[in-house]
C-alpha cells in the first residue's frame, strides 16, 4: 500500500480538479518550489498513484444524447461466466465503465449512446445475446448536478 503524505495528497486534489495545471502554478498552490513539486508528481506517477491524465468531454458535443447506469445480473455465478461477460463488455464502446459489485447483481455499467434508439439496439442485440444474462435494469441519467469523474 502506498503512503501519501499531506503535501502529496494536496497535489493529488489539485491535479484531480485540473490535470493541465502548470507545474509552476501547482507548486504555488501546494507551497513547494517548482523542482520539489515536479519530483513529487513524478514520484506519484512512478509509484502508480497517478495512472494517467484525461480530457473531460461534453457528451452532447460528441454526439452522446443518452447516458444510463445499467445493472446486470447473471444466471450463472461462475468465474468463467464472469470472464465471458467482461470480455463482451470490453468490446463494447458504449460501455464507458464496468464495475463488478456486491449485492443482488454482479455488474454496474455506465453506458453512453447517441440516443434512446441506439441504446435499445445495444440493449437488445448486444447485451440480450449474452447467454448467461438473467436481468438488466436500466436507470436513465436525467441530469448530473455533480460529476467529479475525470
Structure, explained:
This protein is of the alpha+beta class and 150 residues long. It folds into 2 domains: 6-46, Winged helix-like DNA-binding domain superfamily/Winged helix DNA-binding domain (Arc Repressor Mutant, subunit A), CATH 1.10.10.10; 59-140, Lrp/AsnC effector binding domain/regulation of amino acid metabolism (RAM) domain (Alpha-Beta Plaits, 2-Layer Sandwich), CATH 3.30.70.920. It is 37% helix and 20% strand. The chain contains 5 helices and 4 strands, in the order H-H-H-E-H-E-E-H-E. The protein has helices spanning 6-17, 23-30, 34-46, 79-90, 116-126; strands at residues 66-74, 95-100, 107-113, 133-140. A 4-stranded antiparallel β-sheet has the order 2-3-1-4. A hairpin with a 6-residue loop joins strand 2 (95-100) and strand 3 (107-113). Helix 2 (23-30) crosses helix 3 (34-46). The longest helix is centred in the first third of the chain and has 13 residues, at 34-46. It starts with 5 loop residues before the first helix and ends in a 10-residue tail after the last strand. The model has no long low-confidence stretch (mean pLDDT 95).
